[in-house]
Amino acid sequence: MDDTEAPSALPTIAALREHSLTAVVQHEIERMILAGELAPGVRLNEKAVADTLKVSRGPVREACRALAELGFVHLIPNRGVFIKKLTKEDAVEVYDLRAGLTGLASQLLAPMMTAEHLDRLEGFVGEMEQSAESADFQSFYPLNLEFHDYIVRATGNARLIKLYRGLVKEFHLFRTHGLVQRSSLLESNHEHRDIVAALKAKDASLAYLVSARHVGNGKERMLSALDDLAEASPARHRREPERGRIE
Amino acid sequence: MDDTEAPSALPTIAALREHSLTAVVQHEIERMILAGELAPGVRLNEKAVADTLKVSRGPVREACRALAELGFVHLIPNRGVFIKKLTKEDAVEVYDLRAGLTGLASQLLAPMMTAEHLDRLEGFVGEMEQSAESADFQSFYPLNLEFHDYIVRATGNARLIKLYRGLVKEFHLFRTHGLVQRSSLLESNHEHRDIVAALKAKDASLAYLVSARHVGNGKERMLSALDDLAEASPARHRREPERGRIE
DNA sequence: GTTAAGGAAATTGTTGACAGTTTGCATAAA
DNA sequence: TTTATGCAAACTGTCAACAATTTCCTTAAC
After folding, report:
1. Are A32 and A233 in contact (CB under 8 A)?
2. Own/partner pairs for A9-18, CB < 8 Å, 24+ apart?
């Protein structure tokens, strides 16, 4: 089974033909949201977006429909599309789901573990160990992403892969919104070792447990960090971002 | 801003305003797919759909974009939208995911179980018991759906609820395509009792295990049934549905 | 008989325009 | 000053038309 998706081999012809205007617009809006260029809660002005991207409103509207289904924006009839606002409750939801899917991926992979899988995973853990020891969050973070993505990919379950990556994107949103802190790198990587060990032993139940708990620990760290934050500035009431326009 | 408005007296106006043409079209196409009126693999003729529903192509295209993100249709640039074909591999994917999400829901609900939760769940199991004893699949099936949906709903995790219900819809598709058989009702309900028992004991790990296994058993029954089917008519090669038009 | 080429028809991609609704401002009344 | 009212601008919802691409049928060559 080929579980490694070709990164970007020959996007020459295929890329141009695969990318309709709508797809490009969708990708661009998604990028803007993930990059924080579109603040949560603001309304997307269809015409403004269309003019900026040099297209008509049709593709923009189609892209927004897709993004709404993906959960990045919210549609209100006759009002327009609004960038989804993410609350602490949303973070909890995403963490819980991510824990479940991460655990499920490990559980599914455990019985089909190959030597190559083990090699790759141990490679990631080794690299992360180095990053963690030098407290290099910059290099640790993408490795961490790739480690978990690799496990999910290796299951071969396309739906699981899609859902998981969607959650990871939402998770990125929390980072840009400052809801996530850098956790203890060494501690995190120790949990990675536990995951690999369970996979190596082909113990599906254990693999689920340690994987789900790994994400769950991240959730707990976030919640306690948020509580600390609230304690530091207790009377701070939430500011409601009003409607606004892009550009 | 405290608008002391009457709770939810007239959904008539709200309902109309909530439903844009696009939403109606999306719902209608989804219904046609789930009802089997649109066969897998066939192309959706935008103009034909638009004419049938008495709308222009714009809303149809927007609806299709949303349905593509939901996984019901597949978009091929310059070719059109195609109803997703579901294979045995798809069924396995959906089963595995559904097992994971079902397990996750039980795991999340376990620590927050209330007396009312227990009451409702035991009620469902009791009703299913009656249906199972009289081999009344017709009444058992919706009860079974509601039992599981209730557990998922009770978690309060909106994303989990949405994903789970999406999978259930896909699962319905397999039923209409004959990939799923009526399993042993009594056996299935016995597993329901195990789930409720684990939830009652607030044992999250056990709740996950029995819930996930419950769905996993369904998967195994489907696979073995499929194998039997293949054995019965061995040389039957899969017919490739060609492109076609609706109506 | 099979394969290749050409062109017409059908279909999708995209655009601009119009209708209905919402928003915001200005004016007026209390 | 505050609150209501009405009008104008802006925006979304929808549609019909045009452009680009694909599909299909006909014709011709081997």
Report:
1. no
2. A17/B77, A17/B78, A18/B77
Question: What one-letter code names the amino acid at B172?
Answer: H
* 67-106 on A, CB < 7 Å from strand D: 75, 77-81
CA distance to partner chain A, nearest, from residue B134 (Å): 36
DSSP A41: T
Q: Does domain B88-232 have CATH number 2.30.42.10?
A: no
The residue extents of the domains of chain B are 11-83, 88-232
Query: Which one, of B105, B71, B83, B92, lies nearest residue B180 by Cα?
Result: B92
Residue A153 has pLDDT above 70, yes or no: yes
B3 pLDDT tier (thresholds 50, 70, 90): very low
Nucleotide nearest to B47 (CA to C1'): C11
A159 with B107: Cβ contact below 8 A? no
pLDDT in tens, B116-174: 999 999 999 999 999 988 888 889 999 999 999 999 999 999 999 999 999 999 988 88
B44 touches strand C (CB under 7 A): yes
- Residue A137's contacts (CB-CB under 8 Å, 6 or more residues apart) are A131, A182, A185
| B158 part of contact set with chain A, CB < 8 Å | yes
Distance B81 CA to C9 C1' (A): 20
For A114, left (φ over 0), alpha (ψ -120 to 50), or beta?
beta
A61 touches strand D (CB under 7 A): yes
B102: contact with A, CB 8 A cutoff: no
A245 touches strand D (CB under 7 A): yes
Mutation target for B interface from A62, A78, A106, A203: give the one with most B CBs within 10 A. Answer: A62
Contact flag B100-A94 (C-beta cutoff 8 Å)? no
Q: What is the pLDDT of residue A64?
A: 96
Taking all residues of chain B, what is their mean pLDDT, rounded to a whole number?
A: 85
B11-83 folds as: Arc Repressor Mutant, subunit A (1.10.10)
Q: Do B78 and A17 touch (CB under 8 A)?
A: yes
CB distance A97–B157 less than 8 Å? yes
Is B77 within 8 Å of A20 when comparing Cβ atoms? yes
| Residue A189 near residue A195, CB atoms below 8 Å | no
Min mean pLDDT across A6-20, A61-75, B128-142 is at A6-20
Cα distance between residue A46 and residue A126, in whole Å: 47
DSSP result, A153-167? HHH--HHHHHHHHHH
Distance CA B20, CA A68 (A): 14
Predicted confidence at residue A65, as pLDDT, reads 95
Query: How far: A64 CA to D9 C1' (Å)?
Result: 25
CATH fold of A13-83: Arc Repressor Mutant, subunit A (1.10.10)
